[in-house]
Amino acid sequence: MRKTATIRLHVNGEEHALAVAVQRTLLEALRYDLMLTGSKQGCDKGDCGACTVLARPLGSRLQAAGFGRGEAILSCITLAADAQDLEITTIEGLATPSGLDPVQRAFADVGALQCGFCQPGMMLSARALLDKCAKPTLPQIQEALSGNLCRCTGYTKIYEAVEVAAGLRSPASRAPVASERAAASDSKAQAVQEIVP
Amino acid sequence: MSVGARFPKVDGAAKADGSGIYADDIAFPRMLHAKILRSPHANARIRGVDVSEALRLTGVVAALTGDELPAKYGVIPWTHDEQALATDHVRFVGDEVACIAATDERTAEEALKLVRVEYEVLRALLSPEDALAHPEIKVNEKAKIGNITKHVNLQFGDVDGAVARAAAVAHEQYEYAGSTHVPIEPHCAVARVDADGNLTVWSSTQIPHYLHRELSRVLGLPPAKVRVIQPLLGGAFGGKSDPFSLEFCVAKLALKTGRPVKILFTREEVFYAHRGRHPMKMDLTVALDEDGRIEAVDNKILIDGGAYASFGLVTAYYAGQLLTGPYRFGTYRFDSYRMYTNKPPCGPKRGHGSVQPRFAFEVALDEAAEKLRIDPIEVRRRNFIGEQVDTINGQRITSNGFLKCLEVVEQASGWRQRRGKLGPGRGLGVAGSMYITGTAYPVYPNEMPQSGVLVKLDRSGRVAIFSGASDIGQGVNTLLCQIAAEELHCDPRDVTVVAADTDLTPVDLGAYSSRVTFMVGLAAREACEKLAAKLHAAGGATFAEACQRAEAAEGAPLAATGGYRTQKLGGDYRGGTIGASPAYSFTAHVAEVWVDEETGIWKVERIWAAHDCGKALNPTLVEGQIEGSVYMGAAEAQMEEMVYDDKGLLFGPSLLDYRIPTSLDTPDLESYIVESNDPNGPYGAKEAGEGPLHPAIPAIANAIHDACGIRIRELPFYPQRVLKLLRARGTARERVA
Q1: Cβ of B267 and A43 within 8 Å?
Q2: Which chain B residue has its CA at the smallest distance from A102's CA?
Q3: Are B667 and B607 in contact (CB under 8 A)?
Q4: pLDDT tens figures, A26-85
Q5: How far is A132 from A183, CA to CA, in rounded Å?
Q6: Class at the top of the CATH hierarchy for domain A4-93
Q7: Which of B15, B110, B267, B413 is the best mutation test for A, with the most CBs of A within 10 A?
Q8: What is the pLDDT at residue A65?
Q9: Which one-letter DSSP state was computed for residue B278?
Q10: Is there a contact between A42 and B7 if contact means CB atoms under 8 Å apart?
Q11: Do both B697 and B622 map to the same domain?
Q12: Are the C-beta atoms of B467 and B505 separated by less than 8 Å?
């Protein structure tokens, strides 16, 4: 018979009691026990970063002290049982009733999302960075996101999204395209933004 | 104006807040989890498979072996050479043998260890040379002659005469390594059978329609009893455009057990599923006249195909047929062999079949031009094929913005001011390319539209678009909303897209060969135009009011369909239709590299990429396609390679061992959109998803040459290879001195 354990997880401000196999990973508990399917499994070995969640010591006053929701950790190589003394934030916990987190908003606005599969992890790593460093430089962004593999974007628009979320640039401040005809479509875009707020 | 706008993706919020549903996010009560047992041998006869002990394990519900799904399948109807589970022959390490369904995934995995398989191990053929040399050993019985999937030999003009008369000839061997797609989402499929016996399969596929056909055929079910739904897809790049074993296994197990069944591939299994870039060896000659005009191109191509055909029949053609632009060729010949080998099957990775010869050709063009002391950008300009012309192999080019692409990257990179003045170990390189906007013909011959769209208007003012097209992250669902808004003058956010569900949506052939924007775009515009005429006639102060008045006038709900119909295209010779496309995209890149001549370590600092997409229906999405393509091309030059040991075992099938670039490895990417406004594309649009990958690799190779004088002809450009060439160069210099 397999060994099971009863554990308590604190996720997105809620406490859950679960009976799980002792080898259940935090990612499995999130996805399959709590149905928080926003955390993704890309490799199950800690290589790709799609399973990234935020974690800080339970009951910590770090958030009040301006340290945000903690460090980005890999839930696929963390045992659920080992996460009992942590407060976990998943992508589902990033938005508030008043709307998406600025990181989520920026990723959607600037086109940083293509297939979207790496993005929950990517956005949480970005959130962890911005909580620690409100105005990061590009090398700091690149360093902070280097544990999250993206296969669609070449990362370019992801950097833009983080800069937009940090207030370092506006979504419309995309460097102008060189071709004259494309410049025309930029002005068109401007016109549409006026129609579609 | 909605078309041409930087409209945010319609599924952006659902992807941002984690609520979007991908295949593995689907779960049903009583759902079983299944796992597939794979061959440990590269080539072996199966003498017997015994699942009895596995079935006795608590929690195991069902087992499946090859004899229950014996029908052969494959994406191309002429090369059905795969089985969901092998009946008598396994052909690579990782080939599928048996499948076990249990109440949970871990139990299914434990049960695999209890399956007894008796193998008779055979000699494995692991290289295309070996496969040619040993026709008596059959990798795949589908091959008519030896181990050849397909041999193509086409000649246009007197190539040998042109080479003999040429002023400068570059003749060398090139070797392109195999690489794989690595979508971050592993393949996943879920099947369920309803009370009436109808089967539904949710799958991470980019070809729901072809999968629908193959499921019906292999399972022996009428197509009307099978439904395929593609949920959100976590990346594909060509890696999900074949039918795969897991889709047949979940379907059969669901039929067998009456319970929903899911299979999620591990990352290791994704590597075995593969269908990635074919390794190619090329013996290429490029000959120029004294003005630098291309008089002859001659390419002998040996393609390592792996154990199954996949799209390999097409690959053997694409390796030659897609090289004939953006430059005019005086004469041309190619001779390509696609070989079966005992390795995971190769297939269509972004830029299918044409990335490898493009690399070789663009390096050779540079080399030949250098002999004539012609600037690399200038030689490309001089050979420009033009607009509204036929290529030497009979492909019709309509719009062509290649000269503009060259001009843009020349200016953006500071080519004229900076080249040759960057200091030691630094250099600039250029390359160009052409790619299809959809393949002209469906993979199975038929007269029906290749893409269909149904648009329905509600009296509330809500628009519903039913489209069979697969949004695989490229954003076609967003484009459909923009097209509806453009034609109907509605708010694009008031459009619902129902996509890629074979019960509900008209057929689209799938997200492959860069066909989607062009073909679905035309179909959607056609449907919307019909409705726009009725709305215009009805009039109204608001969009909803116009819908109500038009519906009243119609006396029936308002709906219309549109389709993309096959055009007769291509050369008038056997194979002349393969590579034919309704429009071609064009790209130019300049790459800047730095090479440490002491160690061979090099870095691509920046790539400027200009792409002629005809018309950017959404510039943000087009830039995303350009940047993602350039990244993926640079990655192949930098680090990616499928490596096997001498038994055919894939070395390190994980993302730790098979390295893909992180944010720290990716060069600065600058994307530029060039709009040539194609006369036949929707609003002038052509493709953007695959073409921009091609020039990255040769532009980097040419930049390395500019930086330190070596010509690297083998991928990836590992530092040790660069160092070896640097040392050889040093020796040659010493000898001259």
Answers
A1: yes
A2: B16
A3: yes
A4: 999 999 999 999 999 999 999 999 999 999 999 876 555 556 889 999 999 999 999 999
A5: 37
A6: alpha beta
A7: B15
A8: 57
A9: P
A10: no
A11: yes
A12: yes
B154-178 exposure pattern, b = at least 16 Cβ within 10 A, e = fewer:
bebeebeebbeebebbbeeebebbb
Torsion angle of C-alpha atoms B84, B85, B87, B93, degrees rounded to 10: 120
Residue carrying the six token digits 């099947």? B191
Residue with tokens 């990179």: B413
Give CATH for domain A102-195: 1.10.150.120
pLDDT at A182: 38
pLDDT band at residue A173 under the 50/70/90 scheme: low
Rounded to 5 degrees, what angle do the CA atoms B308, B310, B311 make? 140
What average pLDDT score do residues B680-698 get?
A: 98
- The CA distance from B339 to B358, in Å, is 20
Q: Convert the pLDDT of each residue in B314-350 to its tens digit.
A: 999 999 999 999 999 999 999 999 999 999 999 999 9
Range of the domain at B253: 23-122+184-235+240-273
**Interface confidence (ipTM) of the complex:** 0.96
Distance from CA of A1 to the nearest CA of B (A): 10
Q: Give me the sheet containing A14-21, strands edge to edge.
A: A14-21, A4-11, A86-89, A52-57, A71-74
Kindly list the domain boundaries of chain A, sorted by start residue.
4-93, 102-195
Contacting residues of A for B624, CB less than 8 Å apart: 111, 114, 152-153, 157
Helix B208-219 vs helix B245-257: crossing angle, to nearest 10: 50
CATH number where B548 lies: 3.30.365.10
Tens of pLDDT, residue by residue over B593-642, are: 999 999 999 999 999 999 999 999 999 999 999 999 999 999 999 999 99
> Hey, are the CB atoms on B234 and A90 less than 8 Å from each other?
no
Chain B CA closest to residue A119: B16
Tell which residue, B158, B178, B394, has the closest CA to residue B298.
B158
What's residue A172's pLDDT? 65
pLDDT of residue A68: 82
d(CA B74, CA B342): 17
Contact status, residue B388 vs residue B398, Cβ threshold 8 Å: yes
Task: From residue B117, give the alpha-carbon distance in Å to each of B89, B90, B268, B433, B691.
Answer: 12, 11, 21, 49, 45
DSSP B648: S
pLDDT tens per residue, range B35-60: 999 999 999 999 999 999 999 999 99
A192: pLDDT confidence band, cut at 50, 70 and 90?
very low
Integer Cα distance of B717 and B711 in angstroms: 11
Whether B4 and A185 lie within 8 Å, measured CB to CB: yes
**Same domain? B292 vs B407:** yes
Considering the domain architecture, whether residues B486 and B579 belong to the same structural domain is answered as no
B78-88 exposure pattern, b = at least 16 Cβ within 10 A, e = fewer: ebbbbbbbbbe
Is there a contact between B190 and B262 (Cβ–Cβ < 8 Å)? yes
State how far the alpha carbon of B385 is from the alpha carbons of B369, B398, B577, in Å: 17, 11, 20
For B54, residues 6+ apart whose C-beta sits below 8 A from its C-beta are B60, B63, B100, B111, B112, B114, B115
- Helix (H, G, I), strand (E, B), or coil: what is residue B583? coil
For residue B467, give the DSSP letter: E
Q: B5 in contact with A at a CB cutoff of 8 Å?
A: yes
Interface of A with B in 153-172 (CB under 8 A): 153-159
Spell out where B326-379 has E strands: 332-339
B218 in Cβ contact with B247 (< 8 Å) = no
A–B CB contacts, 8 A cutoff, strictly below: 236
Cβ <8 Å between A154 and B621: no
Q: Which B residues, 183 through 242, put their C-beta within 8 Å of a C-beta on chain A?
A: 183-186, 232-237
Q: Cβ atoms within 10 A of the Cβ of B282, count?
A: 24
